[in-house]
Structure formats: structure tokens, C-alpha cells
Amino acid sequence: xxxxxxxxxxxxxxxxxxxxxxxxxxxxxxxxxxxxxxxxxxxxxxxxxxxxxxxxxxxxxxxxxxxxxxxxxxxxxxxxxxxxxxxxxxxxxxxxxxxxxxxxxxxxxxxxxxxxxxxxxxxxxxxxxxxxxxxxxxxxxxxxxxxxxxxxxxxxxxxxxxxxxxxxxxxxxxxxxxxxxxxxxxxxxxxxxxxxxxxxxxxxxxxxxxxxxxxxxxxxxxxxxxxxxxxxxxxxxxxxxxxxxxxxxxxxxxxxxxxxxxxxxxxxxxxxxxxxxxxxxxxxxxxxxxxxxxxxxxxxxxxxxxxxxxxxxxxxxxxxxxxxxxxxxxxxxxxxxxxxxxxxxxxxxxxxxxxxxxxxxxxxxxxxxxxxxxxxx
Length: 377
Description:
Mean pLDDT: 94
CATH architecture of the largest domain: Orthogonal Bundle
Low-confidence stretches: none
Shape: globular
Strand order of the largest sheet: 3-5-4
Number of helices: 15
CATH superfamily of the largest domain: Fido-like domain
């Protein structure tokens, strides 16, 4: 099937509204648009460079967790949460009460990412895995009563206050199981020659068009992208997340999805998607490069502490996972006494590595600012 010949589906009249019933996607795909090929080459090159950094950076898993936190915060923000990345790194009891619901949504996303990636070792990317991920995402937060972990059995819509004024109405619930089965078969179909990035780009479009859950579709659909790339071996580590690109280009993202539904313009969507992969991979590569430089500088700085340097190096490894800590956090993580932890924080503060963030005398929080800023820009 050429992208240019693809008919995305049809609008079916319902009572006082029309739902969009998408066509199946499990087929061979090619295209005439030369820019799709050019952008695919650029995206693959950038992704290869990103993956190379994830292989050469020592103790890469120390830094991957911050990528996950950044993705959780950004992906949740697209859905309306107000948690900033430094707040997401705090324990719940340190978060203002009025922000704790948003904080829980972000942390559910972190749990969902980590659980899904861990599950890939024994369960391929599948509808089962997506449902498990959705159940974790919806646990104990807004949407917990909207069939967590189950495909919807009622009609939903996107935008507007009702079906009558919705910006988009996905397919009726009766068609969701077959459509999701077709999507799953497409992801695993080895009889067709479709490049991985084109395959997951089309699959993401289809997932968001089906909108198989009553809530949380955006987050699960975005998470499906790195899960697929890891499962097929394109990525070694979960280092590529497109939520930041989608948020910065939110109007263009929604327009590109609608271009397929309204004008059958799959090539336009693929151009947008591949551009996002390339830009995101390049940004991720630059972050890893900056991490390596910062790590070298921090390791050299703590050598000045003499016999206290081993504890300081161990503290740095804690900070790479979570650059927002208290003295109690370091004491627990390093199995050291509270006085030793306080002394260690004073040493790191004098070296300019940690900065106090609260201005309080009790319950002080310290931030590894230079490191945190790498994930904020």
C-alpha cells in the first residue's frame, strides 16, 4: 500500500454525531514522497548515535532514570498536570497538598514505564502489555474508575464537552478489539518489509485514532513508541521519548494526526513523526554528551576531599538517579549516619555541586542544579 493511496477510514453517521472508523493497517507500506525517505535516513542516523551513547556511557542506568522522570512529567503535562520536574523528584510528603494528585499521576507514569520495560524481557509488546501499562497508569488517580487495564466498552471523544461538539470521535466501542488486534499483528508482521520507524509511526497514529481506553490514551500511545523500539532491538536502553517534541509542537501534532483522518495524508504524518524522532534523538545525544562532561568534572572536584572522596563519589551516583535529595535521603541510600550525611552535603555544597533549595532550617532539600538543568532545557 502506498501512503499516497491509503484511505484512512470513513465517517459513520451515529445519533447526533459521526464516528471515524479507521481502516486496518496490517499491510505492506511504501511511498512516493522523497522527503519521507530523506527524513527516515536522518532519523535512523540520529537514533543510531543516541543508541551508541547509551552503550558507551558508564553506568548508563544511573542516568536513564532521569530520562524516565522527564518523560513522565512532560507526557503528563500534555494531559493537564502541573507538576514540574523538580517537584516530581520530591517524596510525596514534601509536595504541596494541592499538587499531590498531579504528583501521583506523574509517579504512576514512572512506574508504568519501568514496569513495562521490565516486562518486555518476558512479554512482547502486545495488547496485553499495553493493558497492564494502562492499569498502572490509572491506579489511584483521576481516571481510576474508567476501566483501568481494559479496552473501552462505551463511546469516547476528544475535545469539546460532548459527542455533539467533539473535535474528534473515535470508532465505536464494538470495533475496538478487532482494530487493536490488527495493530498488534502489524507490529509483529515479519512477512512485510516496513522500516521500524515507519511501522511505529503508523502504529502510533492508529492507536491514537482508535483511542482504545476511556482515559490515558495519549500517555500509553506515546509510551508505545520506545517500548516498540526496545522490543525490536533498535534501542538498547529506553532513551528516546517523544512527549517533549509533541508538546512543543502540540498544534502541529494534532494537525498531522487529523490530516490522515480528514485528507488520507499519511505521508504528512510520517514526515512530522520522523522529524520528531530525529530532533529528539539529537537532543538526547547532546544530553548524554553533557552528562559525560559533567560527570568528569564532578569526579575531579570530589578528589579534593581526600579520604572523604569515596563517600562523595557514592553520593554522586545517588544524585545521578535523583538530583533532589535531603540529608536523610543520602543517609539511607549510603548507609551512613546523619552527621556523616550532613558533613557530606556541606562538602558537596562547598564544591558547588549541591545547592540548598528551601531556605528552611529544618527539612532542607538540596539540588544538583547543573545536572537537573540538562533535563529542563
